[in-house]
Write a structure and sequence with these properties.
This protein has ten helices and 13 strands. Helix 3 links the parallel strand 4 and strand 5. It is globular, with a radius of gyration of 19 Å. The two termini are about 35 Å apart.
Length: about 300
Protein backbone atom coordinates (compact mmCIF):
# COMPACT_ATOMS: atom_id res chain seq x y z
CA UNK A 1 0.00 0.00 0.00
CA UNK A 2 1.19 3.51 -0.80
CA UNK A 3 0.72 5.63 2.33
CA UNK A 4 0.82 9.44 2.52
CA UNK A 5 2.36 10.25 5.89
CA UNK A 6 2.16 13.75 7.36
CA UNK A 7 4.50 14.16 10.31
CA UNK A 8 7.08 11.58 9.30
CA UNK A 9 10.18 13.34 10.62
CA UNK A 10 9.10 13.70 14.26
CA UNK A 11 9.39 11.35 17.22
CA UNK A 12 6.46 9.01 16.50
CA UNK A 13 6.73 9.57 12.74
CA UNK A 14 10.19 8.00 12.63
CA UNK A 15 8.79 4.81 14.08
CA UNK A 16 5.75 4.82 11.80
CA UNK A 17 8.15 4.94 8.85
CA UNK A 18 9.95 1.90 10.27
CA UNK A 19 6.70 -0.03 10.65
CA UNK A 20 5.41 0.95 7.20
CA UNK A 21 8.59 -0.38 5.62
CA UNK A 22 8.60 -3.51 7.79
CA UNK A 23 5.05 -4.24 6.61
CA UNK A 24 5.98 -3.79 2.95
CA UNK A 25 4.20 -0.46 2.44
CA UNK A 26 5.58 2.47 0.46
CA UNK A 27 5.79 5.68 2.55
CA UNK A 28 5.08 8.95 0.74
CA UNK A 29 6.19 11.68 3.12
CA UNK A 30 5.75 15.45 3.23
CA UNK A 31 9.05 16.92 4.44
CA UNK A 32 9.70 20.53 5.25
CA UNK A 33 12.99 21.60 3.61
CA UNK A 34 14.62 22.35 6.96
CA UNK A 35 13.73 18.86 8.25
CA UNK A 36 14.98 16.80 5.31
CA UNK A 37 17.93 15.42 7.30
CA UNK A 38 15.61 14.18 10.07
CA UNK A 39 13.84 11.59 7.91
CA UNK A 40 15.16 8.12 8.66
CA UNK A 41 15.51 5.58 5.84
CA UNK A 42 14.84 8.40 3.39
CA UNK A 43 16.30 6.34 0.56
CA UNK A 44 13.38 3.91 0.94
CA UNK A 45 10.71 6.64 1.00
CA UNK A 46 9.12 8.87 -1.61
CA UNK A 47 9.52 12.42 -0.32
CA UNK A 48 7.75 15.65 -1.20
CA UNK A 49 9.27 18.96 -0.18
CA UNK A 50 6.80 21.46 1.24
CA UNK A 51 4.65 22.63 4.13
CA UNK A 52 1.22 21.50 5.27
CA UNK A 53 -0.29 24.66 3.72
CA UNK A 54 0.95 23.71 0.22
CA UNK A 55 -2.11 22.12 -1.41
CA UNK A 56 -0.36 21.56 -4.73
CA UNK A 57 2.29 19.37 -3.11
CA UNK A 58 -0.29 17.58 -0.96
CA UNK A 59 -2.43 16.76 -3.99
CA UNK A 60 0.63 15.37 -5.76
CA UNK A 61 1.22 13.10 -2.74
CA UNK A 62 -2.37 11.94 -2.73
CA UNK A 63 -2.42 11.14 -6.44
CA UNK A 64 0.20 8.52 -5.64
CA UNK A 65 -1.27 7.19 -2.38
CA UNK A 66 -3.87 4.72 -1.18
CA UNK A 67 -4.20 5.86 2.44
CA UNK A 68 -3.31 8.74 4.73
CA UNK A 69 -1.75 8.93 8.20
CA UNK A 70 -1.86 12.36 9.82
CA UNK A 71 0.69 12.55 12.62
CA UNK A 72 1.62 16.24 12.71
CA UNK A 73 1.54 17.64 16.23
CA UNK A 74 3.00 20.23 18.55
CA UNK A 75 3.75 20.00 22.25
CA UNK A 76 3.77 23.78 22.55
CA UNK A 77 2.93 26.71 20.29
CA UNK A 78 4.66 30.00 19.45
CA UNK A 79 1.99 32.22 17.84
CA UNK A 80 4.39 35.07 17.04
CA UNK A 81 6.35 32.63 14.86
CA UNK A 82 3.18 31.34 13.20
CA UNK A 83 3.50 27.98 14.97
CA UNK A 84 0.08 27.24 16.44
CA UNK A 85 -2.07 24.31 17.52
CA UNK A 86 -4.90 25.67 15.37
CA UNK A 87 -2.75 25.65 12.27
CA UNK A 88 -1.22 22.19 12.65
CA UNK A 89 -3.71 20.20 14.74
CA UNK A 90 -6.89 21.40 13.05
CA UNK A 91 -6.34 23.35 9.84
CA UNK A 92 -3.85 20.78 8.57
CA UNK A 93 -6.25 17.93 9.28
CA UNK A 94 -9.15 19.80 7.68
CA UNK A 95 -7.10 20.54 4.56
CA UNK A 96 -5.88 16.97 4.09
CA UNK A 97 -9.38 15.55 4.66
CA UNK A 98 -10.90 17.78 1.97
CA UNK A 99 -8.08 17.00 -0.46
CA UNK A 100 -8.39 13.28 0.29
CA UNK A 101 -12.08 13.43 -0.56
CA UNK A 102 -11.25 15.18 -3.83
CA UNK A 103 -8.59 12.57 -4.62
CA UNK A 104 -11.02 9.70 -3.84
CA UNK A 105 -8.81 8.36 -1.04
CA UNK A 106 -10.92 6.69 1.63
CA UNK A 107 -8.57 5.45 4.38
CA UNK A 108 -7.46 8.09 6.91
CA UNK A 109 -5.77 7.50 10.27
CA UNK A 110 -5.40 10.36 12.74
CA UNK A 111 -3.02 10.82 15.65
CA UNK A 112 -4.97 12.48 18.45
CA UNK A 113 -4.27 12.35 22.20
CA UNK A 114 -5.77 10.89 25.33
CA UNK A 115 -7.80 13.45 27.27
CA UNK A 116 -8.80 15.70 24.36
CA UNK A 117 -11.97 17.74 24.95
CA UNK A 118 -13.81 20.76 23.68
CA UNK A 119 -13.37 22.80 26.84
CA UNK A 120 -9.71 21.92 27.43
CA UNK A 121 -6.42 23.65 26.75
CA UNK A 122 -5.79 24.87 23.18
CA UNK A 123 -3.79 21.68 22.60
CA UNK A 124 -6.70 19.49 23.71
CA UNK A 125 -9.38 21.55 21.98
CA UNK A 126 -7.71 21.67 18.56
CA UNK A 127 -7.11 17.90 18.67
CA UNK A 128 -10.75 17.39 19.62
CA UNK A 129 -12.26 19.53 16.85
CA UNK A 130 -9.96 17.80 14.34
CA UNK A 131 -11.46 14.49 15.46
CA UNK A 132 -14.98 15.84 15.01
CA UNK A 133 -14.22 17.14 11.52
CA UNK A 134 -12.85 13.74 10.51
CA UNK A 135 -15.84 11.90 11.97
CA UNK A 136 -18.17 14.09 9.91
CA UNK A 137 -16.27 13.42 6.67
CA UNK A 138 -16.93 10.72 4.07
CA UNK A 139 -13.63 8.96 4.82
CA UNK A 140 -12.99 5.55 6.38
CA UNK A 141 -11.37 6.91 9.51
CA UNK A 142 -9.59 5.56 12.57
CA UNK A 143 -8.44 7.75 15.48
CA UNK A 144 -5.74 6.86 18.00
CA UNK A 145 -5.51 8.62 21.36
CA UNK A 146 -2.22 7.68 23.03
CA UNK A 147 -1.31 8.35 26.64
CA UNK A 148 2.27 9.43 27.46
CA UNK A 149 4.54 8.04 24.70
CA UNK A 150 8.11 7.08 25.57
CA UNK A 151 11.06 5.64 23.64
CA UNK A 152 14.37 6.60 22.06
CA UNK A 153 13.77 10.07 20.54
CA UNK A 154 16.43 9.58 17.84
CA UNK A 155 17.35 13.25 18.01
CA UNK A 156 13.77 14.54 18.27
CA UNK A 157 11.67 15.55 21.29
CA UNK A 158 10.34 12.91 23.71
CA UNK A 159 8.77 13.30 27.15
CA UNK A 160 11.15 11.29 29.35
CA UNK A 161 14.39 12.57 27.79
CA UNK A 162 13.12 16.16 27.97
CA UNK A 163 12.05 15.65 31.58
CA UNK A 164 15.48 14.32 32.46
CA UNK A 165 17.22 17.20 30.66
CA UNK A 166 15.04 20.08 31.85
CA UNK A 167 14.18 18.96 35.37
CA UNK A 168 15.65 15.74 36.69
CA UNK A 169 19.17 16.43 35.50
CA UNK A 170 19.37 19.70 37.43
CA UNK A 171 21.00 19.88 40.89
CA UNK A 172 17.66 20.65 42.54
CA UNK A 173 14.95 18.39 43.99
CA UNK A 174 12.35 16.97 41.63
CA UNK A 175 8.96 18.69 42.10
CA UNK A 176 6.00 16.62 43.24
CA UNK A 177 3.25 18.92 42.01
CA UNK A 178 -0.02 19.30 43.89
CA UNK A 179 -3.12 21.50 43.74
CA UNK A 180 -4.19 23.67 46.62
CA UNK A 181 -2.26 24.34 49.80
CA UNK A 182 -1.94 20.92 51.42
CA UNK A 183 0.52 18.49 49.77
CA UNK A 184 -1.41 15.39 50.81
CA UNK A 185 -1.53 13.97 47.28
CA UNK A 186 1.65 15.48 45.90
CA UNK A 187 2.84 13.69 42.77
CA UNK A 188 -0.06 11.24 42.77
CA UNK A 189 -1.52 11.99 39.31
CA UNK A 190 -1.05 9.02 37.00
CA UNK A 191 -0.18 7.90 33.47
CA UNK A 192 -0.21 4.77 31.33
CA UNK A 193 3.12 5.19 29.50
CA UNK A 194 3.15 3.47 26.12
CA UNK A 195 6.21 2.69 24.03
CA UNK A 196 6.49 4.44 20.69
CA UNK A 197 7.01 1.18 18.76
CA UNK A 198 3.70 -0.13 20.10
CA UNK A 199 1.90 3.02 18.96
CA UNK A 200 3.51 2.84 15.51
CA UNK A 201 2.53 -0.82 15.10
CA UNK A 202 -1.11 -0.01 15.88
CA UNK A 203 -1.15 2.75 13.27
CA UNK A 204 0.27 0.57 10.51
CA UNK A 205 -1.75 -2.53 11.33
CA UNK A 206 -4.93 -0.46 11.29
CA UNK A 207 -4.39 0.47 7.63
CA UNK A 208 -5.82 -2.76 6.27
CA UNK A 209 -8.01 -3.74 9.21
CA UNK A 210 -11.62 -3.14 8.25
CA UNK A 211 -12.85 -3.64 11.81
CA UNK A 212 -10.85 -0.53 12.83
CA UNK A 213 -12.80 1.77 10.51
CA UNK A 214 -14.97 4.27 12.38
CA UNK A 215 -13.32 3.58 15.74
CA UNK A 216 -11.46 5.71 18.25
CA UNK A 217 -8.82 3.88 20.28
CA UNK A 218 -7.28 4.89 23.57
CA UNK A 219 -3.67 3.68 23.60
CA UNK A 220 -2.00 3.27 26.96
CA UNK A 221 0.52 0.88 28.46
CA UNK A 222 -0.53 -1.83 30.87
CA UNK A 223 1.18 -0.17 33.86
CA UNK A 224 -0.36 2.76 35.72
CA UNK A 225 2.45 4.99 36.99
CA UNK A 226 2.15 8.04 39.25
CA UNK A 227 4.26 11.13 38.65
CA UNK A 228 6.30 10.21 41.71
CA UNK A 229 6.87 6.68 40.40
CA UNK A 230 7.69 7.98 36.93
CA UNK A 231 10.42 10.23 38.34
CA UNK A 232 11.84 7.35 40.36
CA UNK A 233 11.88 4.99 37.37
CA UNK A 234 13.59 7.53 35.12
CA UNK A 235 16.29 8.44 37.62
CA UNK A 236 16.90 4.86 38.75
CA UNK A 237 17.29 3.71 35.13
CA UNK A 238 20.91 4.89 35.35
CA UNK A 239 21.45 3.80 38.95
CA UNK A 240 20.68 7.12 40.62
CA UNK A 241 18.16 8.38 43.13
CA UNK A 242 16.55 11.81 43.00
CA UNK A 243 15.43 13.75 46.02
CA UNK A 244 11.90 15.08 45.52
CA UNK A 245 9.79 17.60 47.39
CA UNK A 246 6.11 18.69 47.22
CA UNK A 247 5.59 21.73 45.01
CA UNK A 248 2.34 23.74 44.80
CA UNK A 249 1.49 24.02 41.13
CA UNK A 250 -0.40 27.35 41.23
CA UNK A 251 2.59 29.72 41.68
CA UNK A 252 4.59 27.69 39.16
CA UNK A 253 1.76 28.11 36.64
CA UNK A 254 1.73 31.86 37.21
CA UNK A 255 5.48 31.99 36.63
CA UNK A 256 5.12 29.84 33.50
CA UNK A 257 2.47 32.18 32.06
CA UNK A 258 5.01 34.98 32.16
CA UNK A 259 7.79 33.02 30.49
CA UNK A 260 6.32 30.20 28.39
CA UNK A 261 6.39 32.33 25.25
CA UNK A 262 10.17 31.83 25.33
CA UNK A 263 11.38 28.52 23.87
CA UNK A 264 14.12 28.21 26.50
CA UNK A 265 11.57 28.00 29.32
CA UNK A 266 10.98 24.26 29.89
CA UNK A 267 7.21 24.11 30.47
CA UNK A 268 4.03 26.06 29.78
CA UNK A 269 1.09 26.76 32.05
CA UNK A 270 -1.15 24.63 29.80
CA UNK A 271 1.29 21.75 29.95
CA UNK A 272 1.15 21.92 33.74
CA UNK A 273 -2.64 21.88 33.59
CA UNK A 274 -2.64 18.75 31.43
CA UNK A 275 0.07 17.13 33.53
CA UNK A 276 -1.99 17.56 36.69
CA UNK A 277 -5.02 16.02 35.00
CA UNK A 278 -3.10 12.78 34.62
CA UNK A 279 -3.24 10.66 31.50
CA UNK A 280 -4.67 7.20 32.02
CA UNK A 281 -6.83 4.97 29.87
CA UNK A 282 -7.90 1.38 29.42
CA UNK A 283 -8.28 -0.34 26.07
CA UNK A 284 -8.03 -3.67 24.29
CA UNK A 285 -6.08 -2.00 21.50
CA UNK A 286 -3.02 -4.23 21.83
CA UNK A 287 -5.07 -7.39 21.74
CA UNK A 288 -6.97 -6.16 18.70
CA UNK A 289 -3.81 -5.27 16.76
CA UNK A 290 -1.77 -8.25 18.02
CA UNK A 291 0.85 -6.11 19.76
CA UNK A 292 2.78 -7.22 22.83
CA UNK A 293 3.38 -3.94 24.67
CA UNK A 294 6.74 -3.02 26.12
CA UNK A 295 6.81 -2.29 29.83
CA UNK A 296 7.75 1.10 31.24
CA UNK A 297 10.88 0.10 33.15
CA UNK A 298 14.54 0.86 33.68
CA UNK A 299 15.36 -1.58 30.89
CA UNK A 300 13.12 0.11 28.32
CA UNK A 301 14.50 3.52 29.38
CA UNK A 302 18.16 2.71 28.71
CA UNK A 303 18.15 5.20 25.84
CA UNK A 304 18.21 7.92 28.52
CA UNK A 305 21.80 6.96 29.34
CA UNK A 306 23.15 7.27 25.81
Amino acid sequence: MKVALFGGTGFVGNYIVDELLNAGHEPHILVRPQNASKLIQSEKCITYSGHIENEVVIMEMMKNSDAIIYNIGLIRQFPKKGITFEKLHFEGVKRTIKLAESAKIKRYILMSANGVKMDGTPYQTTKYIAEQFLKNSTLDWTIFRPSLIFGDPRGTIEFCSQLKKDMLGLPIPAPLFFNGLIPKNAGSFSFNPVHVTDVAKCFVRALEKESAIGKTYAVGGEMTVTWKELIKTITSSNGKNKWSIPAPVFPIKMFAKLLDRFSWFPITADQLTMLMEGNTCSSNVFEEFDVKPLEFSGESLQYLNE
